[in-house]
Design brief:
- This protein has about 140 residues and is α+β, with helices and mostly antiparallel strands.
- It is built from 3 helices and 8 strands.
- The protein has a 4-stranded antiparallel sheet. A two-stranded antiparallel sheet has the order 2-3. A two-stranded antiparallel sheet has the order 5-6.
- The radius of gyration is 15 Å and the shape is globular.
- The mean pLDDT is about 90.
């Protein structure tokens, strides 16, 4: 891959991160206030979806990377994903290692077979204790 293409990709990733950072931080703060009540978290995610219209799914994981909510999508809740273990997902590795925010490399989603990116924000309480992760599939 040419250096020009690598530079353009890096610039686009930085732009996407800047678009996501503020809304994700606000959504994470809202999640902390209603932690760990599933219904309240799903309500927060549904409201947050309005600020992230290009997202396909939003959901929250606990500190073991088990899903605490249904997937929240523009079409509504997808409850079949509740309690799913996502700890083995490669796009979670940076967040598990301590990064406050991470954006995955592009990949083809397993189910929809479409290009995707995943953004993960760590959720910590006021004392810095890791509660879990807020996850967005773009």
């Amino acid at each position: 891959m040419s250096q020009i293409i690598k530079t353009i990709i890096a610039q686009q990733r930085m732009l996407l991160q800047s678009w996501l950072a503020g809304p994700m931080q606000r959504l994470t703060a809202a999640c902390v206030r209603c932690w760990p009540a599933r219904t309240a978290l799903e309500r927060c995610l549904a409201q947050g979806l309005d600020t992230l219209p290009w997202c396909k799914h939003l959901f929250v994981l606990d500190n073991r990377a088990h899903q605490l909510t249904a997937n929240v999508s523009p079409g509504g809740l997808l409850p079949a994903y509740f309690e799913r273990d996502r700890s083995g997902r490669p796009d979670l590795s940076h967040a598990l290692a301590g990064d406050a925010f991470s954006l995955s490399d592009a990949y083809i989603s397993r189910n929809a077979r479409r290009p995707s990116l995943t953004a993960v924000q760590r959720i910590v309480d006021g004392s810095g204790t890791l509660l879990g992760f807020s996850w967005r599939r773009l």
